[in-house]
Amino acid sequence: MPRMSQRAYSRHRGCALSTVQAALKNGRITADPKTGLIDSAKADRAWSEKTDQTRTFRPADQGANGRGRRPAGDGSVSEDFMRARTARETYAARMAELEFERRSGLLLPSDEFEKAGFTAGRRFHDALINLGDRIGPVVVGLEVHEAIKLINREAARILDDMALGPSKNGKGRD
């Protein structure tokens, strides 16, 4: 003889709160007039006796538990089909998005990206290796602070070339 609220009784029955409220209003079940609580055992008996089961709506795909879900492992054909179709549509949408991004220039093929990265890295490597050969003879006769200033300026030029790209003649920016 557990007593419960309308909301708790709706969970107990596996139906909507509005269904319990309608049953109370129509007199199919009763609640304690003082507390408003429903005696679940008494209400279950009254519900069974006073509810026309032919008018109860329960779609075939709603499942045995009446809550819109089939028990685990049911594996119905329509559920499997819907799962497969959802996967296919998701895949198609992702492919369409990738194709759009590729055509709009947001994506590059990975081999082009790797080649561009290698080329940029190689240019940077070569510029650093040749730094000494390029400015060594110039700094020989300079004061230390002037030599440091020249080396720093040349290093900054190399870094700028990497950030901005090579000049049109391919030898760096002047």
What does this structure look like?
The chain is 61% helix and 2% strand. It is built from 7 helices and 2 strands. A two-stranded antiparallel ribbon has the order 1-2. The longest helix has 27 residues, at 77-103. It starts with a strand and ends in a 10-residue tail after the last helix.
Beta-strand proportion: under 5%
Number of strands: 2
Query: Which secondary-structure class do the elements indicate?
Result: mainly alpha
The largest pleated sheet is described as: 2 strands, antiparallel
> Any low-confidence stretches, pLDDT <50, length ≥5?
60-66, 69-73
| Domain tally | 3
Q: Using only CA atoms, what is the Rg? A: 39 Å
- Sheet with most strands: strand arrangement: 1-2
Number of helices: 7
Query: What fraction, in percent, of the residue positions are helical?
Result: 55-70%
Report the span from N to C terminus.
Answer: 93 Å
Tell me the overall shape. elongated
The whole-number mean of residue pLDDT values reads: 81
Topology pattern, helix = H, strand = E: EHHEHHHHH
